[in-house]
Input
Amino acid sequence: MSKRLRSSEVCADCNGPDPSWASVNRGTFICDECCSVHRSLGRHISQVRHLKHTPWPPTLLQMVETLYNNGANSIWEHSLLDPASIMSGRRKANPQDKVHPNKAEFIRAKYQMLAFVHRLPCRDDDSVTAKDLSKQLHSSVRTGNLETCLRLLSLGAQANFFHPEKGNTPLHVASKAGQILQAELLAVYGADPGTLDSSGKTPVDYARQGGHHELAERLIEIQYELTDRLAFYLCGRKPDHKNGQHFVIPQMADSSLDLSELAKAAKKKLQSLSNHLFEELAMDVYDEVDRRETDAVWLATQNHSTLVTETTVVPFLPVNPEYSSTRNQGRQKLARFNAHEFATLVIDILSDAKRRQQGSPLSSSKDNVELILKTVSNQHSVESQDNDQPDYDSVASDEDTDLETTISKANRQKLLGKDAN
Output
């Protein structure tokens, strides 16, 4: 990444100098200490990436930079800008504050409680308000004003809103107008590039018809982001979407392990899940991959001459209150999987994602996702392995750059060398 932070850039949460992380969905740059709190909030609150040592799609980084430079932080600190807030004793954190409790309490209030966000006048029907905001978003994405759209999203506008009169979504509108940064923002907030308009066209179709070929290609990448990220985590390769290759399926170096009855049972249970439950499991595994990779970057970039306390460690996926307790428990159990077990689950998900996209028939079953997680985690329990020894063949990364290479190779030293399209 060629990004070079300017000396004028400061942490959005404490004004500390030289922030090295970004909160993608908040459009802010943050320092190491504040990032440790962001990571404990979960991706549903803050999606963090290192500015130098995490791979960035160029337009995604440009989107975050644009939001930061245009004052996106004022959205999250709106009421703190009022002089009256100083009189009331409310203030933001500063670099000298302790991480716990000072910075942590401020960051949780700012992003989790949205304590300082501008509030709309109360109305009797909140659904009408959300619909109005979504319609404003639908109109605004045709322009380049990112911070206006982020403000609407922060107030409750829906990125995937289907306009009843227009017959399409905000992502369709942004794609038609060639607004690639708006498309990035909408995608971060859950917009689906595969959504059909009333005529059966996707945002990719809109982009192509408008001659916005770079945007069309990026939308396809976004559509396959989940499976691309899982594949890259295991083998350091991504599919060639331009040439119609949409999946890379790694294979175990020791294929004999895949022939166990437990492995077959796990695959069968996975294949029998409904599409909805399969998508939930795949998203949970994606979040766990993000947690593991971010942890690797975090540990590699910290100054180990200072004590890294337990309060900066994120041992498992934080609870998402929008999910059931059963799903949250399953998400946390993913952290217990060793490299071999987790790779097995990832490969099975990639294989079944490809099968489902190709329209293979599904069997009906009420098997719970919990059973799949238990089965996979027990697959190799008989074969106790030394964690210091690699389970898989190492694979060279396509992106051999500084620290990123070191981290990705460390993640992949227990992986295999074969890929199947």
Summary: Residues 1-5, 362-367, 380-402, 413-418 have pLDDT under 50 and may be disordered. The CA atoms of residues 76 and 114 lie 7 Å apart. The first strand starts at residue 21 and ends at 23.
